[in-house]
Amino acid sequence: MFVSVTLIDQRRETMEQFEAAIRDEPLVAEAHLMSGEYDYLLKADVPETDSFERVHREVLAALPGVHRLVTHFSLRAVISAT
Asked: What is the pLDDT of residues 42-75, one digit of tens each?
């Protein structure tokens, strides 16, 4: 799943705390600092044995500085980097 993350602010301290936390989170496969409407785009690998609700509530929403999460699910890959 892909998750767009908006932080509570763009202060250096907030961003550094968020980035340190996502580096330590094994479910986050990729993270990109973005321009535009949200601050980060995460690619999260959620095992089939886990629930999206748990990951959303207990993992992603609990990251430091998170204000808003918007989750997108891929229906299928059209072009994929391998």
From this structure: 999 888 777 888 888 999 999 999 999 999 998 9
CATH architecture for residues 2-72: 2-Layer Sandwich (3.30)
Q: Give the sheet arrangement for strand 66-72, strand by strand.
A: 28-33, 40-44, 2-7, 66-72
Q: Are 60 and 72 in contact (CB under 8 A)?
A: no
What distances in angstroms separate CA 14 from CA 5, 10, 11, 55, 61, one per listed residue?
Answer: 13, 7, 5, 21, 15
Q: Where are the domains of the chain?
A: 2-72
